[in-house]
Amino acid sequence: MFTREGTEYGKAVNRDETGKAFFSRLKTCGRCGGAGGSSAWNHTGWTCFDCGGKGDLGYVAERLYTAEELVKLNATRDKRRAKAEAKRAAKQMAFKAEADAKLTAFMAANGELVASAKACAGKSMFIDDLVAKLAIYGSWSEKQIAAVAKSVVEIAASEAKRAASGFVGKVGERIEVAVEVERVAGYDRPAFRGFGTEYVRIVTMRDAAGNAIVVKSPAFYGREKGDKFTLRATVKDHSEYRGEKQTIVMRAAVIGEVVNENFKEEEKAE
User: Fold this and answer.
1) What is the CATH number of domain 165-269?
2) Buried/exposed 175-196: b ≥16 CB within 10 Å, e otherwise
3) pTM > 0.70: yes or no
4) What is the pLDDT of residues 15-36, one digit of tens each?
């Protein structure tokens, strides 16, 4: 006699009322793995609720089969699996054929946009994801087309800005220049006072010529994207970040009134 997995059973065999062979085995508790409890459940008394601390769920009957019965069972199983696999393969082929037809039509209408999107590989996770899905599904929705076109334009504009950026002033020189805040980020670091942490703001600005000027300071607070003002600061360093020339400044101060164009637009809308 054999178990359903094909392992030979050499011990005493039991029979049920219909004459079918079986053997009894102790079923290990799946919740505690046979341990009866866990330290993770100390707040409820350690004991496993499923087995009551025994580590098992009692005896269960497992069918036994003759070699001939196993051959029939396995043949039926294999036939069922082959049928399911053929159905899955046919469905997959039909899906691919439909996707290929969609892709051909889509590329005829949007090939230039797709080429531009592929040229942005590695520059936008959103675009990379849609380009990968295009090969699977064969098309983008109208909203996705519009979003990709917008992202491609934004990436091109951002790269143009980075390419046009140059250095401002000389290292150690005190400069005064009109700027607009482009982005604000930051990070935590150990405070110079010797205890706790402080938040360092990274404020990236551009002057009228498109040059990137960066302040990294916990004291340069309150700046927001879109703020326009005259910046007075000392040039600390000339460096490059992701291919963009940046002027790093310190001891930064805002001269004159801060103008936030975004805020003004919101006020007008109200």
Assistant:
1) 2.40.50.140
2) bebebbbbebeeeeeeeeeeee
3) no
4) 988 999 999 989 999 999 999 9
